[in-house]
Structure formats: structure tokens, C-alpha cells
Amino acid sequence: MAEFKKVAEISELSSGRKEITIEENKILLLNLNGEIYAIGSRCPHKGLSLAQGKIEGNIIICPYHGSRFDVVTGQVIKGPAKEGLPVYEVKVEEKDILISL
């Protein structure tokens, strides 16, 4: 059974996103139309942050080289990245955001 850890509160995502570090994992929390997602926050192409990436629907675009990733699945939609992003299971309990590592 997955162990969930509190990583933030809903109010911390007022801008729609928040980058956090948990056990050396860089994670980007996203609030897309009321749904909370947690993905790896480093583009696998060059290891640069996706925190300022543009969001188009469920797609996040790397602000450096334009790789596109599906926020729901982590899958690469368009390179140059060849690997997808880690995706973390999310639970919301009242005001708390919890993820499974």
C-alpha cells in the first residue's frame, strides 16, 4: 500500500503551481482547473526546471528547449526530450495535498 506524505496546502497553489523538494526529488505541483497533479520538475533533456513552463491544457512546455509533456501521464509529447517525467499519485484531504513517493 502506498504511503502518502503531506507536501503542501491547497492555498499554496494559488498561482497554479509550486516547486518542492522531497527526499532529493524535485517535484512540481500543479493545479489545473481544480485537479492537482505532481510531476518531476526537471526536464529529462538537460535537467533544467519546468517550474516556469507554459501550460496548454494538460501539457507543460519546457521553457528552455520546448519539450512538451503530458502532466497526467508524464509522457513526452514532443522532444527534444526522449524520456518522460515521473508522475506521483496525489490525494487531497481537506486543505492538504499528499503525494506518494
In short:
The chain has 101 residues and is mainly beta.
Protein described:
The protein is mainly beta and 101 residues long. The chain has a single domain, classed as Rieske [2Fe-2S] iron-sulphur domain (Rieske Iron-sulfur Protein, 3-layer Sandwich), CATH 2.102.10. It contains no helices and eleven strands. It has strands at residues 4-9, 17-22, 25-32, 35-40, 54-56, 59-61, 68-70, 76-78, 87-88, 90-93, 96-100. The chain has a four-stranded antiparallel sheet, with no helix packed on it. Strands 5-6-7-8 form a four-stranded antiparallel sheet, with no helix packed on it. A three-stranded antiparallel sheet has the order 1-11-10, with no helix packed on it. A hairpin with a 2-residue loop joins strand 3 (25-32) and strand 4.
Q: Top keywords for this entry?
A:
mainly beta, 0% helix, four-stranded antiparallel sheet, 101 residues
